[in-house]
Design brief:
- With about 400 residues, this protein is of the alpha/beta class.
- The protein folds into two domains: about 260 residues, P-loop containing nucleotide triphosphate hydrolases (Rossmann fold, 3-Layer(aba) Sandwich), CATH 3.40.50.300; about 110 residues, Translation Initiation Factor IF3 (2-Layer Sandwich).
- Helices cover about 50% and strands about 15% of the residues.
- The chain starts with 16 loop residues before the first helix and ends in a 10-residue tail after the last strand.
Length: about 400
């Protein structure tokens, strides 16, 4: 397995947090300065949203990455850090005897993220994994905010949006992790045997930890000590999502949905959020809708009873037979010229009655000029205005299935 961390990241326990921060700043500044020199500040346009995905061994990162992408509307494939270490650039460094450590990983990662295809957003699978990388991530976020400030109110402002970092940690306990790793290894070995016997299919890579429970335990403990603990430092800085990956895939995905649901206060730029603040969200609109509907219907009964009775009778006698005829499709369009609806309140009553009964009703008023008489002396045609009320009634249609 390729080592992601440099020798600097693998300090003895005597290493202090201050030294790690110092090391991280040196690494980050070195990489950043190289980017500025190579690309220029105006071209350092990183993704608006980055989901930094980490997880315990066997927690299902690969299984859930695509689900998270669909949930967040991300169309590009994830940036997998371990794959970057197999890139031609990384291989050239290794061939030259250069250790692919934190500095090299950071440089490869940043160059990948600068590609146009990631600008709307992406998932980064497998970073940060060490305390040094965690500190580099903090510095990266700060630098992106600094860039945004530099280009604010310039023609490039839209190219440097407010950065959105989500830390997603899929977690399972040690026992579950070891069981999943070993089970995965057994399935992979069985698959490979079938491929060799049949000559069809592709041989899967099998990690040593997936065939040895002791090694699987060690891999889990390395995650807990070198990755999980440092990640906790980010809880109060970024959107931090700690998700239990225990249980079935649907259950885990329900937790992911709840954790990553859209929150405008966290994700919109402050200027944009302030601009939209006066428009209520749908949950606020519907929060008391039922109570208000009940109040209106009772008000019709007690304050406008004759008109309300007329409207209800029209619904029962004229509308419902047509609606029942369209019960399978769930859509009915009804035209009416009844003068009852010349009273605007009657239209409100009809819509509210249908809403209370579980239908969705809208009305479109059309005015048509109809010839009524002709002045025989002048030949002038006298018209009258006819109102046609076109009602659209939508509801959940019947789920009738034809025989097979």
């Amino acid at each position: 397995m390729t080592q992601l961390a440099s020798s600097k990241s693998e300090k003895p326990s005597s290493s202090t947090p201050d030294l790690e921060v110092k090391d991280a700043n040196l690494i980050f500044n070195s990489v950043w300065n190289e980017l500025v020199e190579e690309y220029g500040k105006q071209q350092l346009r990183f993704p608006r949203e980055i989901i930094w995905l980490n997880g315990a061994p066997g927690a299902g990162k690969g299984t859930n990455a695509e689900f998270i992408m669909n949930l967040r509307g991300i169309s590009t494939e994830p940036v997998v850090v371990s794959d970057l270490l197999n890139s031609p650039e990384a291989k050239a460094k290794k061939d030259a005897g250069i250790l692919v450590g934190d500095r090299e990983v950071l440089g490869l990662l940043f160059k990948e993220l600068l590609k146009d295809k990631y600008q709307a957003g992406t998932i980064v699978d497998g970073f940060p994994r060490t305390s040094v990388q965690v500190e580099c991530l903090k510095a990266f976020h700060a630098k992106l905010n600094q860039l945004r400030g530099e280009f604010l109110n310039s023609f490039l402002e839209s190219q440097f949006p407010k950065p959105q970092f989500h830390i997603v940690v899929l977690f399972i306990d040690e026992k579950e992790s070891v069981e999943r790793q070993v089970s995965r290894g057994m399935k992979a070995l069985e698959h490979n045997e079938n491929v060799k016997a049949s000559g069809e299919g592709e041989i899967l890579d099998v990690r040593p930890t997936d065939t040895d429970a002791g090694k699987a335990e060690k891999r889990y403990r390395v995650f807990k000590e070198q990755t999980f603990e440092p990640l906790k430092q980010l809880r109060d800085i970024f959107h931090y999502h700690f998700i239990s990956a225990e249980g079935s895939i649907p259950a885990v995905q329900e937790r992911i949905i709840e954790e990553l649901k859209y929150q405008s206060t966290l994700e919109l730029d402050s200027k944009t959020y302030d601009r939209l603040a006066g428009v209520p969200t749908v949950d606020k609109v519907i929060k008391h809708a039922r109570q208000e509907l009940v109040k209106r219907l009772e008000g019709y009964e007690y304050s406008h009873m004759p008109l309300f009775a007329k409207v209800v009778n029209l619904i029962q006698e004229k509308f419902m037979p047509i609606i029942k005829h369209h019960a399978i499709s769930g859509r009915a369009y009804i035209n009416s010229e009844d003068s009852t609806f010349n009273e605007p309140l009657a239209l409100h009553m009809l819509v509210d009655v249908f809403s209370e009964r579980g239908f969705s009703a809208t009305v479109d008023i059309r005015k048509e000029e109809v010839a009524e008489s002709v002045d025989l002396q002048t030949g002038k045609i006298n018209n009258r205005t006819k109102r046609v009320y076109r009602f659209s009634i939508h509801f959940c249609g019947s789920d009738i299935r034809q025989g097979l």
